[in-house]
Structure formats: structure tokens, C-alpha cells
């Protein structure tokens, strides 16, 4: 009885899948067009576009951010690792004592944090590279929100 073979196909397909949002935005940012690996990629990318259009990262509450991240994950637009990376943004907001219903400009929040962290790397809880990664995510979201055509079927074609 070889149980490993039964589970290996499932694990392999899960491991090969990257988040549609990341693939599409990476392709756009590099000037390349990303080709979907599977038929459901287009629908998850379209879902990501629709979800991101409902939010504005320059005026978002921590509660709305949590909801947005959850919706992206449930739509298959981000994978588990990306979900965890984005959840760290909410933790940063909690550590900064931002009220869950207080609107915040995430772009400015991370630009300020990154700028303040350079001279005080030893004193900073979050490494500057992690802050830069989080700012990168927020910038990608802002790009999609300001230009709906960036993420969608036309981008993937």
C-alpha cells in the first residue's frame, strides 16, 4: 500500500500554484504578459481585480484590510504564504495602536516606517527588508485600484 503516491499528486499541484495576483502583477511590473497555468487562473485574477476595486489602501481601516486579505485568499488570488505576508500588515497596524475602525493611508504608513527604520535598524522590531516587502504589496494594490485594467484578462493574454 503506497499512500505517498495518493497524496503526492495533490501536494505537487498545490506546490506549483502561485497566487494569481502576484503572477499578474509581477508580469505587468516587468513589462511581460503572464500566461495563466490553469483555466481557473483567469477567474481568480478577475476576482482579485473585483475585490481590490472595493478597497482603497490610501483610506482603509485595519478591519477592512483584514476583510480584503481574507476575500483575496478565499477567491484563490493569493496563496497561503502570501496570505501570511499580508496578515503581517495587520499586525503592524495593531502594534502601532491603530484603531480597527480608523482609516489609514497604508502607502504613507509604510513609507514612513521604512524611512524611520534605516537609521535605527537595531531598534526596529521589523526588518527594513520586510517593511519594503509590505510596501511593495501595498503599492501593487494601489496600482490595481487606480488602474483597473492592470489586473485582468487583458493583462494575462
What's the shape?
Answer: globular
Radius of gyration: 17 Å
Q: Could you tell me the number of beta strands?
A: 0
Average of pLDDT: 73
Low-confidence stretches: 1-20, 22-40, 152-157
Distance between the termini: 44 Å
Number of domain modules: 1
Share of helix, binned = 55-70%
Q: Order of SSEs, N→C?
A: HHHHHHHH
Number of helices: 8
Range of strand content: under 5%
- Structural class, by secondary structure, is mainly alpha
Largest sheet: none
Could you characterize what this model shows?
The protein has eight helices and no strands. The chain has one domain (19-156). The chain is mainly α and 157 residues long. Helices cover 65% and strands 0% of the residues.
Amino acid at each position: 500500500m503506497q499512500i505517498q503516491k495518493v497524496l503526492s499528486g495533490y501536494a505537487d499541484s498545490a506546490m506549483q500554484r502561485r497566487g494569481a495576483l502576484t503572477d499578474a502583477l509581477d508580469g505587468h511590473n516587468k513589462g511581460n504578459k503572464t500566461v495563466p497555468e490553469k483555466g481557473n487562473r483567469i477567474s481568480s485574477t478577475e476576482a482579485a481585480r473585483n475585490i481590490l476595486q472595493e478597497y482603497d489602501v490610501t483610506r482603509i481601516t485595519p478591519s477592512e484590510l483584514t476583510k480584503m486579505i481574507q476575500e483575496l485568499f478565499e477567491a484563490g488570488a493569493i496563496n497561503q504564504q502570501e496570505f501570511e505576508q499580508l496578515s503581517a500588515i495587520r499586525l503592524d497596524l495593531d502594534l502601532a495602536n491603530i484603531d480597527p475602525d480608523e482609516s489609514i493611508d497604508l502607502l504613507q504608513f509604510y513609507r514612513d516606517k521604512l524611512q524611520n527604520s534605516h537609521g535605527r535598524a537595531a531598534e526596529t522590531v521589523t526588518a527594513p527588508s520586510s517593511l519594503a516587502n509590505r510596501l511593495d504589496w501595498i503599492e501593487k494594490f494601489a496600482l490595481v485600484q487606480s488602474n483597473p485594467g492592470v489586473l485582468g484578462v487583458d493583462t494575462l493574454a
